[in-house]
Amino acid sequence: MGAMRPTVLLFDIDGTLVTTGGAGRRSMELAFEKLHGRRDACDSFSMSGMTDRAIVRKALSIIGAPVSEQAISAVVDSYVAHLSEEVHKVDDSAFRVHPGMREAVHAARARAGFAVGLGTGNVRPGARVKLERVRIHDQFSFGGFGCDHEDRVELIRAGAMAGAAQFGVPFAECRVVIIGDTPKDVHAAKGIGAECIGVGTGNFSAAQLREAGAEWAFADFSEPAALSALLDGR
Question: Residues 156-179: what's their mean pLDDT?
């Protein structure tokens, strides 16, 4: 029955749709170096699954810099500026779409009753830079972004609401599916009552994502069952 409802798909970016060859981390390091003289600001914690603004907030605190909305925005703006340059320095073999993802997005967009968007901790301009590099940004007409909310549950909620708006219904009346590579993606899905498909293309295995609560988890989206889970919920 769930597959008969309008379906909202929200894809994470880093580790899920694409790998950036380290361009994102280098850009964040360069932003901190430029503004605070500390390229090592993010070295003591994992950024996996974190929103851009939450990363900056934590790093500012670690280096003892003032933490304010203005200070966070300054670093984020510098990060995006560096990212626009760094993505073009990465070879195609290192900056790529993960197996099966491009095909999965195209298949979902071809289905009636599907809205295909993003659910990512990236701020909107950063998401655009990364996805334009691999020519898939135009496949996503809406999303929940790290600039919508620092908390992943709330940005996912924002993305689900934007997708449901395309059908003119509350997101509670939709099948909402989060596709991600970290336990934080799984927890965000559970936080809004959505389904989750985990992919082991980041720092966590499919088994770890199933253990975190994902309804389905695959090594990558080249597995035939992954597309069935995405489109039909089985």
Answer: 96
The β-bridge relationship of strands 95-97 and 18-20 is antiparallel
Q: Specify whether the CB–CB gap between 9 and 230 falls below 8 A.
A: yes
**Sheet harboring 216-218: ordered strands across?**
143-144, 114-119, 7-11, 175-180, 195-199, 216-218
What is the pTM for the complete model shown?
Answer: 0.95
Q: What is the pLDDT of residues 136-161, one digit of tens each?
A: 999 999 999 999 999 999 999 999 99
Name the helix (H) or strand (E) containing 25.
Answer: helix 23-36
User: For the chain, what percent of residues have pLDDT higher than 70?
Assistant: 99
Closest to 157 (Cα-Cα) out of 10, 36, 18, 22: 10
Which residues on adjacent β-strands are paired with residue 115? 8
* Model confidence pLDDT, tens digit, residues 70-113: 999 999 999 999 999 999 999 999 999 999 999 999 999 999 99
* Nearest-angstrom CA–CA distance, 204 and 197: 13
| Cα–Cα distance for residue pair 207/216, rounded to 1 Å | 10
Tokens representing 51 are 């929103």
Buried b / exposed e over 82-119, threshold 16 CB at 10 Å, is bbbebbeebeeeebbbbbbbbebbeebeeeeebbbbbb
Q: What is the DSSP letter of 14?
A: B
Cβ atoms within 10 Å of 225's Cβ, excluding its own: 11
Name the burial class of residue 185, with classes exposed (0-12), middle (13-18) and buried (19+) by CB atoms within 10 angstroms of its CB.
buried
Token pair 């984020």 in the structure block, residue: 76
Residue 1 has pLDDT above 60, yes or no: no
